[in-house]
Structure to design on (943 residues):
């Protein structure tokens, strides 16, 4: 019987696995709807461990929006750890949802949200456990549609063979549109089978269906062309952009986990998109334009969210939260409102700006001032111009002096290594900055006991960014530079004991680079790695570089290409990139021009405050920057609109949690269980570590 | 020039309320930390006027008493809350129970009087379902266990792997009527250090009689309290109920 609960068969296995609570469901605000009365049924997956996946905002938003539809049912599923995977196989149990403990294969759609490419092997585990053929072309009528979304899905080509469809961009409207199409198709008796359903979805510009596009290659291994093989689907599938975030205040009732997770707080997204123009930042490029939630909506969401969850910490999320046009009023208003309620507030404080310290002070009026994080990203002035991170050394010193003077005891600085045009000297200048910061701290605080943590991640070039053409630094180069820097800091008696140094080896970044800029031929590598035991590649204790390296040798080298070919090779302007046929709104000529500007060290201002620089997004997508100030107020508390929006029709995933820094949380506790062993996003993603 | 929290110190404790709660069904897989976190959030959702500790990171003042292990269900867990505003225990019980997930159920609340809660608890009564174990097999193993004076078992504790005696802590071990596919073990165990848990007793049954259930056993704690001479347990909240009733004329659960 379809849709029945498997819990009775699962339960006896749970005492035999680590942290069984992650598999039992029952979270606050979770929903289990009757199976039989649902017309369309979604299984939503975050392809990583429960403790990482549960807090994901994108998944929570879609879960709530879908379940608000009377005839739609949505349940969640996460990657099971290898201990439970083995038991499921031994006892013939499938991948299950944590809400109703139903088999994933019983659903109409399996939606998978990829924040990082390192979740691809976990997709294969889930498909295999679910009894769904790995290859989309082998799936039949009884199999769910497998739909990928999230930031990594902006180049889904490496997993093109494993997914039926891909949603680009914001997911709120897209999932409703997809639901409409499936509902109609099922009601009509599923005419034409899966192919017809996929064609309808593609025709309505809801999804990209890889099977409808053929890729040909040149003899030198580069892509010859990507051509559409049907005349009723778009030549270039494009991303969805949600306008008016105030009309979509999700999640209204965030999930409250029973198990410990990596982010134990109420997250409220205050705006989406970023036009600071940091050239390494894929999130900033693919989520344009900036769309703010106004202060009243933010105030109402915080109030409703706290009531619904009982959390005692609020994080205001976005790619650069201090940039919200009403952030000062929001900070003061929330600090006033919750001053006596033991609620702590946090803001990702990644910009080097004294204003950020002011905000952090406001958020920690009565809290502990433990650590503040700033992200200069590049060690030298020259390199910061290349990446368009407009921060001077004097700005940094001024900012950290302010922080130390206001009682902050530790400053964390985040950098990347392996940036385009980088030399040893650029990286060594990180030590100079750290020295300046320590000196400034000692001056400002009046004592010598000042700490500064330098955290360094390897740069990975990403699609749809001005750096999509660059040759990635080899892991040997990255590792050598980091060692040089570490040795230099350690040899400097003035700062050696004051500077903490955190970095990871460069090898996971190379595999992330392969998966980020790979094409369809990389699919065979992923499958081989998975067959040889590859699981949880985002976790250091599971990741095996050697396994990836040998799979690349076996699957790519016979084709005349290689791991290096995909990663360290620089592309020229004319090369067809695997993701060129997917429209993120960015004008390819602008991206190339910006890459050339980067090489010249020319900076670019934010289009929110200076004239448009023609990145292409707004005219292509029919969108506009939506920012305040609105002149509205935080108080009084108004209720968040109930019910679901009228609009139905666009993905995404607010990958809410990346970019937020737990240590910037006043009085906050960093990291959840086992987070220490997970490769921190710092090591594998561009941007500030979560 | 370390910063200090501004403003007055937190309001004093005006009342302590003791709760008995159950951990049931799939929520038996909650660890003590999971239970504690879930309680704190439930208390905030229910707007219970908790007293807080002082300092930069004020914590609600909650005192836990010997938690059932992860995977074990319980009908008899205890916790004491310190309140900054007096509250009718029955109301607190109803509000908090409504705010906690089904499976964490508040089943009793009294105003604390007299001696400490921990002093009133020195033993637990457990019932353990053993699917896949036939009754005669269990009966034989229990007899063998009780015949021993010392049975050492080993378990990973927070202090590393420890070896300790199980037998001395066992006050009662009986095979209750089960059937061919599921035997039922009843235990009364003294609280010792390290605590002897039902799984330790099962390990001991394996050691002395080779009992090795193929399906994980399902333990449920039925009672906690002070062990009487006759092997029964005294309800640890009974003195509070009596005192509260007599001294303040309050009604309580």
């Amino acid at each position: 019987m379809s849709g029945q609960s498997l819990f009775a068969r699962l339960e006896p296995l749970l005492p035999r696995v680590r942290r069984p609570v992650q598999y039992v469901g029952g979270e606050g605000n979770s929903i289990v709807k009757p199976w039989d009365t649902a017309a369309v049924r979604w299984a939503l997956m975050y392809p990583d461990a429960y403790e990482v996946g549960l807090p994901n905002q994108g998944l929570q938003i879609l879960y709530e929006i879908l379940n608000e539809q009377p005839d739609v049912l949505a349940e969640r599923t996460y990657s099971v750890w290898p201990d439970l995977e083995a038991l499921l196989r031994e006892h013939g149990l499938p991948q299950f949802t944590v809400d109703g403990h139903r088999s994933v294969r019983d659903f109409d759609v399996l939606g998978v949200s990829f924040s990082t490419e390192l979740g691809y092997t976990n997709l294969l585990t889930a498909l295999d456990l679910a009894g769904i053929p790995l290859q989309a072309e082998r799936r039949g009528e009884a199999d769910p549609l497998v739909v990928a979304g999230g930031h990594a899905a902006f180049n889904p080509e490496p997993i093109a063979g494993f997914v039926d469809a891909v949603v680009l961009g914001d997911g709120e409207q897209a999932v409703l549109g997809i639901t409409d199409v499936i509902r109609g198709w099922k009601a009509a008796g599923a005419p034409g089978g899966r192919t017809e359903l996929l064609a309808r979805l593609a025709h309505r510009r809801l999804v990209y269906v890889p099977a409808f596009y053929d890729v040909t290659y040149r003899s030198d291994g580069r892509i010859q062309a990507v051509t559409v093989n049907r005349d009723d689907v778009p030549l270039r599938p494009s991303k969805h952009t949600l306008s008016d975030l105030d009309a979509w205040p999700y999640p209204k009732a965030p999930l409250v986990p029973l198990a410990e997770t990596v982010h134990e707080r109420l997250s409220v997204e205050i705006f989406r998109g970023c036009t600071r123009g940091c050239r390494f930042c894929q999130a900033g490029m693919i989520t344009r334009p900036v769309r703010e939630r106004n202060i009243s909506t933010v105030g109402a969401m915080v109030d409703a969210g706290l009531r619904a969850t009982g959390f005692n910490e609020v994080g205001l999320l976005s790619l650069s939260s201090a940039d919200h046009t009403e952030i000062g009023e929001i900070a003061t208003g929330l600090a006033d409102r919750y001053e006596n309620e033991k609620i702590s507030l946090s803001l990702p404080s990644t910009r080097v700006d004294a204003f950020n310290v002011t905000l952090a002070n406001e958020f920690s009026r009565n809290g502990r001032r433990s650590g503040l994080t700033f992200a200069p990203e590049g060690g030298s002035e020259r390199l910061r111009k290349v990446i368009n991170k407009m921060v001077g050394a004097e700005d940094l010193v001024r900012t950290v002096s302010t922080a130390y003077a206001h009682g902050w005891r530790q400053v964390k600085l985040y950098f990347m290594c392996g940036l385009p045009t980088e030399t040893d000297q650029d990286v060594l200048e990180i030590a100079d900055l750290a020295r300046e910061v320590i000196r400034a701290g000692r001056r400002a605080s009046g004592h010598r006991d000042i700490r500064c943590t330098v955290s360094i991640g390897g740069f990975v070039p990403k699609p749809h960014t001005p750096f999509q053409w660059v040759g990635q630094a080899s892991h040997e180069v990255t590792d050598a530079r980091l060692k040089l820097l570490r040795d230099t800091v350690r040899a400097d008696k003035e700062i050696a004991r004051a500077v903490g140094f955190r970095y990871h080896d460069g090898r996971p970044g190379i595999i992330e680079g392969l998966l980020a800029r790979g094409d369809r031929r990389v699919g065979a590598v992923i499958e081989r790695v998975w067959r040889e035991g590859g699981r949880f590649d985002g976790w250091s204790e599971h990741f095996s570089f050697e396994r990836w390296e040998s799979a690349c040798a076996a699957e790519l080298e016979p084709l005349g290409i290689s791991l290096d070919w995909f990663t360290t090779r620089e592309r020229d302007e004319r090369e067809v990139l695997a993701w060129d046929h997917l429209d993120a709104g960015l004008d390819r000529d602008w991206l190339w021009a910006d890459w050339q500007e980067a090489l010249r060290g020319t900076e670019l201002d934010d289009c929110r405050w200076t004239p448009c620089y023609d990145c292409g997004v707004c005219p292509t997508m029919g969108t506009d920057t939506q920012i305040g100030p609105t002149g509205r107020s935080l108080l009084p508390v108004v209720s968040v609109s109930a019910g679901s929006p009228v609009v139905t029709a666009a993905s995404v995933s607010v990958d809410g949690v990346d970019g937020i820094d737990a240590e910037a949380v006043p009085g906050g506790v960093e990291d959840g269980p086992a987070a220490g062993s997970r490769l921190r996003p710092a090591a594998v993603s561009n941007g500030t570590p979560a | 020039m370390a910063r200090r929290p501004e403003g007055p110190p937190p309001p004093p404790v005006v009342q302590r309320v003791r709760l008995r709660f159950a951990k049931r069904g799939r929520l038996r897989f909650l660890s003590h930390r999971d239970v504690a976190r879930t309680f704190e959030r439930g208390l905030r959702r229910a707007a219970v006027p908790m007293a807080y500790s002082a300092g930069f990171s004020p914590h609600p003042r909650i005192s836990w008493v010997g938690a059932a292990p992860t995977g074990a269900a319980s009908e008899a867990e205890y916790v004491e809350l310190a309140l900054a505003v007096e509250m009718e225990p029955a109301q607190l019980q109803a509000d908090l129970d409504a705010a906690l997930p089904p499976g964490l159920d508040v089943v009793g609340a009294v105003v604390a009087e007299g001696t400490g809660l921990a002093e009133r608890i020195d033993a637990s009564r457990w019932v353990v379902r053993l699917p896949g174990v036939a009754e005669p097999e269990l009966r034989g193993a229990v007899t063998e266990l009780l015949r021993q004076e010392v049975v050492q078992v080993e378990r990973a504790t927070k202090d590393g792997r420890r070896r300790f005696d199980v037998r001395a802590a066992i006050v009662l071990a009986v095979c209750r009527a089960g059937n061919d596919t599921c035997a039922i073990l009843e235990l009364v165990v003294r609280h010792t250090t390290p605590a002897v848990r039902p799984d330790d007793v099962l390990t001991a049954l394996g050691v002395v009689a080779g009992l090795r259930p193929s399906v994980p056993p399902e333990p449920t704690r039925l009672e906690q309290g002070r062990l009487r001479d006759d092997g029964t347990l005294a309800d640890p909240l009974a003195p509070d109920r009596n005192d509260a009733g007599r001294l303040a004329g309050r009604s309580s659960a």
Remarks:
- Chain A is about 30% helix and 10% strand.
- The interface with chain B takes residues 7, 11-12, 14-16, 19-21, 23-28, 256, 258-260, 264, 306-312, 342, 365-369, 407, 445-446, 667 of chain A (CB under 8 Å).
